[in-house]
Design a protein that fits this description.
Elements: H1 2-7, H2 11-24, H3 37-40, E1 48-50, H4 53-56, H5 63-75, E2 85-86, E3 95-96, E4 102-103, H6 112-122, E5 126-132, H7 149-158, E6 163-167, H8 176-190, E7 195-199, E8 216-218, H9 231-242, E9 253-255, H10 268-280, E10 285-287, H11 296-302, H12 305-311, E11 320-324, E12 328-335, E13 341-347, E14 353-358, E15 369-374, E16 379-385, E17 387-392, E18 397-403, E19 414-416, E20 420-425, E21 432-441, E22 461-468, E23 471-479, E24 486-494, E25 508-516
Bound molecules: alpha-D-galactopyranose.
Amino acid sequence: MVRLSRLAVPGSILLILIAAARPQIPRPAGLPQRAHAEVDGLALTPPMGWYPWNVFGEEPQNEKLIREIAEALAASGMKDAGYAYVGPDEGICFSRGRDGTLTTNLSRYPSGLRGLGDYIHTKGLKYALYTDAGTKTCSTAMPGTKGHEREDMRAFADWRADYIKIDWCNSQGQDIVQAYSDLSEAQRAAGRPVVHSLCSWGDGYPWLWAGAIGHMWRTTADICAPGEADWARAIRIAFANEKLGEFAGPGRWNDPDMMIVGMDGLSEAQNRSLFSLWCLMASPLIAGNDLRAMDRSTIDILTNLEAIAVDQDPLGVQGRVIWNDGNVSLWAGKPLFDGSLAVLVLYQGKYKAEKKIAWEELGLEAAEELYARDLWAHTTSGPHAGGLTVSVGPDDVAFLRLSKKAEFPIPPIVVADTYLISLRSTGARAETLTGRVSVINKGSSDLAPWRIDPKSLPPWLTVAVEGGGKVQTFVNKASVAGLKKGAYHALVRADNVEPVSGKPMTALYYDVDLEVDRSVKR
Ligand code: GLA
């Protein structure tokens, strides 16, 4: 099977491929050079969420599972830590009807794929779906988008997807840049901004071109076969992905695959290390474990806001290896929004290790006096001059933030109570209906009011932003005067700027539905 042979690609070959990529592959001509995200404002920090593949494989993906996971995301505190995207991977189980359009498998998704999306949106989460750019998905059980790009992207827009993972199985003979560009174009034509997550496992060197048409791309083969977390493999992937940092930035991310944190077979230290590495590399944080059955330690790791702050930093710099002696590696090169630096020491040896981090290795003056925040112990020490010694256990990390100041602010982490407002007018009266979306900033800095371009709204809708500081509420007023009987929809976009760095924040989108039962006079 295609999947097995792909999983068999050893990490060393991947490393060779990656090393070979830079001099040999020219940036394809004719593509827009701007990052896709500059237009739609999506994924300006790495997407966070959950996908089923690592732990479940194709079975038993169905509506019940996805709903239970959405509930677990909220109940475990992961939603409050910024995880938002959730939905089926391969297991989405659509088929293509005679007219060419995709149809939902209602026995697995009884509410339909739109119904599941609405449920996820009302939980204040974002809807992630899956497809393949070839003729069929990897299992060959489902149709791919080839030759149906427009219809399929239209269907994903109708289902109200916010994120689509696009696999690269059964794509023999296709030009990869063209295929993913066509999908991006089709998605634009469908009119719903969607995070495009390209999944070609590094085939076609997506880091060279995919920023212009998507938001993130897999850099390596799968991190594990379903249900079989593999620490050594994950570490090889981290070291391969680390080399591609120059291609990443706000809205265009290297994706070393969904995480295996919390899966059977990993120790607490390994979970902590993997999570820290993903954060240091500004990787998408897509959990891959069963969120319904997490122990306390897994929850604490996945929801560590101080580590997440490094991942979600608005500057969007991917950290890298500074040196590696085979047992110990020093990772840094990640300046953060407040002028601090993230630093990580990974220890792959057998016994406890003591390591000195010298400021000069980080490109700092030796005489510099810096405070150190331990992102796992949640303690601050210093000021330290010249450097600092850390002690690290086997497969564990020291994960630090260094700063001239003793404060370590958390950038905005935005969490909404809902992403769907549903309004209904039952009489023929010229009434105004109101629906609210409240957005909480779980970071430590206050935000200016979110801005909405009134020209982007339909004539029946106005939106005002109320509150300030940590909680802001979008007050949506729908005026039905003059509207005919029917269903109306608006996708509202709000923008903001991170107050410390001045960088644009990931645009916030939500849906407003208005149903008018009887035509209304002006
Ligand atoms: C590929 C992807 C995986 C998963 C499977 C589904 O292997 O890399 O993440 O989506 O396909 O078949």
